[in-house]
Amino acid sequence: MMLLGAFMVLPLIVALIYGENSSVRAFCLTIILCVLPGAAIRFFYKANIDDISLKPRDSYFIVTISWLLASAVGCIPYILTGSIPNFFGAFFETCSGFTTTGSTVINDIEILPRSILMWRSLTQWLGGMGIIVLFVALMPRFGIKARNIASAETPGPTVTKLTSRFTGTAQRLYVLYLIFTGTLMLLLLAGGMSIYDASNHAFTTMATGGFSTYNDSIAHFHSNYISWVITLFMFIAGTNFELFFVAAYGHPLKALKNEEFRLYASIVVIATVAITASLMHQGTYNNFREAFRDSAFQVTTIISTTGYATADYDIWPAFCQMVLLLVMITGASSSSTAGGIKMVRVLVLLKMIKREIRIKLHDTIVNDVALDGRKLLPDTVIFIIGFVSMYLITLISGTFLISVTGQGNLITNFTAVLTCISNVGPGLDLVGPTCNFSFYNGFNQFILSMVMIAGRLELSTFFILFSRFFRHPDEV
Amino acid sequence: MIRLNNNKKFILNIISAAFEIYGICLLPCITVAAVMHEDMDYFPLALVCLASLIGGFIGRRMIRSSIHQVRPRICYMTTLFTWLLLIAITVVPFYFGIPGYSVIDAVLESTASWTTTGIGVYDTSTLPMSLQLLRSICNWLGGMGIIMVTLAILSSRKFIGWNLASTEFPGPTFLKNDSPFRTDYRKLVAIYGALTLVQFVLLVIAGMGPFMSVLTALSNTSTSGLQHIDNGVAIAFSIPVKIIITVFAFLGSINCSVFLLCIRKKYRDIIKNSELQFYFWRVLISCIIITVFIILGDPEKNIFAVFGNAVMQVISFISTSGYIITDCGNWPSICIFFILLQMFIGSCALSTGGGIKGARIIILAKTIAFTVYRQIHPHSVRSLTFSKKPMKSDYVIRANLFVALFMITYLLGALLLSFDSMEVIDALNYSQAMITNTGTSIGQLDMPGLAENFTPLSKLTMCILMIAGRLEIYPLLMMFFRNFWKSDASV
User: Fold this and answer.
1) Distance between CA B283 and CA B277 in Å, rounded?
2) CA distances from A109 to A105, A119, A435 (A)
3) A137 within a domain of the structure (yes/no)
4) Count of domains in chain B?
5) Are residues B257 and B193 part of one domain?
6) Are residues B179 and B132 part of one domain?
7) Residue B128, domain member (yes or no)
8) Is the same domain home to B312 and B379?
9) Which of A59, A470, B240, B324 would suit a FRET pair with B409, their CA atoms being 20 to 30 Å apart?
10) How far apart (Å, rounded) are the C-alpha atoms in residues A296 and A276?
11) Is residue A313 part of a domain?
12) Do residues A63 and A457 touch, judged by C-beta distance below 8 A?
């Protein structure tokens, strides 16, 4: 019965997505394909909803399957319009959209029909807040049960309750997301973009996705104003959204004191300064303001795992590339639309190391790890450390898998997997900011798509499906 | 005279003893220098030797501590200072003995010798004989752990010994019955001595020159790579020599408790040891993968020859020795990636090799499975096991944390190295080669184990990485924490 519940949810989500997009002609067929079964299944199983209490296992299943299915269905438009003729390419592109990665297999974006590009940006926007959070917010009757699903979905280890009912929280987050998107759209319009460009870029910025409607991304606009506005909003998108509520409820200082936010902000500042200094020192740029603008933009775009480009950092000095590589691994804050390991985990990790040293030196002292003044339970710590380990292993095995076919060199493959697992977009060398993933064959594109989804769903949610204990729930 | 408290006396006492041993070990180098009329090296070597002998002797006799239990902090201090001071004093002969060496070059050479990293500033085989011998001796002492050697020779330290030795050989130790205890380090030193001796004899029989055999035996047992032979490129050797080298590099890289268990005739425990099994499978699977991909690329080749070569090369890198024994530069990139991966994992805990160590990777994999399991059954009370024994969650966290720390150090090292406008991939490769104490990166075969073109900043970074890798990071990192300098009472 639980499985039935799960299956019921899936097409419904998809139907909702397409329902919103109904103005676009080319999608009619897809919409019909999705809405009908979705509505039918929903109608037939309506009665059962209230009786279902979701076990963790089921919520993981729902989440993972819905992302996979959404990506599979989402690629139909690409294939139907002939934008990306082969299935794996289209699947890759849709995954990249829904997981807000922003890697592309399309060589020339500008020749594609606008509706397709709009769809592309929209997938990211939808993916950004998480299909499920969106879904939960619009389906209040799921009530408290939804919390299970969302904890599998909203990235990061700390989901503090904002309101007593989870659906309330989700709705608020969703409203916040809408407000930010709207503001950004207006600001971009003020900067001289067309409505079409502004909405596309607002969608992909807030989702930390990074799809653009131009081949040379944000560099296309040659505008300081647009660069800085987008930098600011990428930074916002990488911040823990809950902090905005804390600030809005009259504790702006409390929000600033948040340890994760502090680490996030200081890493952005340090990385920007380091890159600017290196660029000026090596003579890549002559103009300080340009160097500063581009490095601030690139650092924010990578750390928030957006992946726009204003400059080709592939030709920057290796030091800058290493800095970008590092922030690609860390990612931004938890409870944001960003990917990567997440700042809060990095923070706990560093605190753990410090604690380890204290304990090694003075074996008699008691020392607990605290975050924002609250003690962390050993279980949480193991989960955080387990996550970091899983991240490393996925990174390595992913690189291994796509190296098997002999395509690309080591650094290309490594950064390709890294960029996918962190949901960033561009990597280094052959997958650098001016290049794309089209040279990979179908197998590799499929692997990379899976890595993206795994990264988006915080790895364990995805890998649980392959666990022996998942298939045999009663075995312990 | 300055009044010293017991802790300081203890530290100084151990350091003095280490210096005494070092001084004695320098005697053969001086002899070689005298016999070969290497005048430039004779005086610095003699000076250093004399200084360490006298200093060590006086220190050991004069400063006696009546300490019975040592705090961990003091152990870490002892290890760290002994290593840093010995590296510092070894700089002298390299600096004065080789024309054209800057201070940082000499520091790099000395650090590489002590940390068993197979890298040199210039081609080591062109150095004076006495200095080559010095390198090999430092390799040997460093590989086994100078503290370990010191403890074996000092008689009065039986009770606190293991505490101290474990700061030098930190690796994850689990099973009480196969961790060395009390007098066991004497046996260990004897075992490694015997291994070296046997290897020397075998090499001479196989037709290598006696002096060359000494160098090879000393540096191969300590898995430092064969720097004295054409910078570690051993392609030209005859097959028996290659086999001998491979076998002993392998022996050097397995957990030393295996030898102890052998002596106690507990063969069943050896076979059951999951780290050893893992190590064995890693070697085998790597070889098979490499063979398959090479054969796929060129079906004409003899499968047995390819497999044999793969075994030798894999052991070279998995034991973090890093000598080149076949034409692995032409291998497909997937094989190279796989070897790089094995280099990270490195050899077994409690061996002369470097890297993250197999036992930790086993725990890592189990933690991941455990995390997944706990998410499906959030209320379960099952715990992780290693070699079928349950593990404390502290151990689990510690092992995982070390892997993370290792990766952080590796990435930050690469960041510093990339200052030199190296390519990103080179920076990553070199950082890895340094922190695993391998010295040669398999991606760098055109210029194996040479650092002459680097800037002083990079050389310094490399030195820090090497020491960090050898002492498993923590002791070095501790230096920068206030707690390190404070006594227990004041924390």
Assistant:
1) 10
2) 9, 13, 12
3) no
4) 2
5) yes
6) no
7) yes
8) yes
9) B324
10) 8
11) no
12) yes
- Helix (H) / strand (E) containing B195: helix B184-205
B480–A contact, CB cutoff 8 A: no
The most confident of the ranges A55-69, B36-50, B100-114 is: B100-114
**Residue for token pair 């293991």:** B162
Q: Is B481's Cβ below 8 Å from some Cβ in A?
A: yes
In 3D, which of B138, B102, B134, B97 has the Cα closest to residue B121?
B102
> With contacts defined as CB-CB under 8 Å, which chain A residues touch B380?
476
For residue range A241-274, list pLDDT tens digits in order: 777 877 777 677 777 888 888 999 999 999 999 9
**How far apart, in Å, are the Cα atoms of B165 and each of A37, B154, B183, B395?**
68, 13, 12, 19
> Which of B334, B486, B488, B491 best tests the A interface by mutation, with the highest count of A CBs <10 A?
B334
Q: How far is B368 from chain A (nearest CA, A)?
A: 6
β-bridge partners, B120: B450
Decide: A53 and A145 in contact? Cβ < 8 Å: yes
pLDDT (0 to 100) of residue A191: 86
A78 in Cβ contact with A116 (< 8 Å): yes
> Mutation test of the interface with chain A: which of B293, B425, B461, choosing the one with the most A Cβ atoms within 10 A?
B425
Contact between residue B177 and residue B387 where contact means Cβ atoms under 8 Å apart? no
Residue type, A139: M
Residue B384 in any domain: the answer is: yes
- Of residues A218, A385, A224, A422, the one with CA closest to residue A304: A422
Q: Domain for residue B418, yes or no?
A: no
User: B385: part of which helix (H) or strand (E)?
Assistant: strand B385-386
Residues of A in contact with B361 (CB under 8 A): none
Closest residue, chain A, to B406 (C-alpha): A353
CA distance A421 to A321: 18
pTM of the model: 0.87
Instruction: Give the per-residue pLDDT at A264.
Output: 92
CB B436 within 8 A of CB B343: yes
Residues B154 and B28 reside in one and the same domain: yes
Dump the DSSP string for B232-251.
Answer: GB-TTS-HHHHHHHHHHHHH
Question: What is the model's pLDDT at position A333?
Answer: 81
- Give the range of the structural domain holding residue A367, as residue numbers without chain letter: 360-471
Quote the mean pLDDT of chain A.
Answer: 76
Window A:45-84, CB contacts with B under 8 Å:
56-57, 60
Q: Which domain, by its residues, includes B127?
A: 1-169
Which one is predicted more confidently, A421 or A469? A421
Closest CA to B98 of B56, B59, B65, B129: B129
| B170, pLDDT greater than 90 | no
User: Which residues from A are below 8 Å from B419, CB to CB?
Assistant: 319
Interface membership of A367 toward B (CB under 8 Å):
no
User: What are the residue ranges of helices labelled H in B298-392?
Assistant: 303-318, 333-345, 358-376
Range 374-393 of B in CB contact (< 8 A) with A: 374-378, 380, 382, 393
**Cα gap A392→A398, rounded to integer Å:** 10
The partner residue sitting opposite A381, judged by closest CB among B336, B397, B421, is B397
A-chain residues near B382 (CB < 8 A): 476
The model's confidence at residue B202, banded by pLDDT at 50, 70 and 90, is: very high
**Closest CB from A381, A428, A469 relative to B424:** A428
Domain assignment present for residue A387? The answer is: yes
pLDDT in tens, B6-26: 778 878 888 888 888 888 888
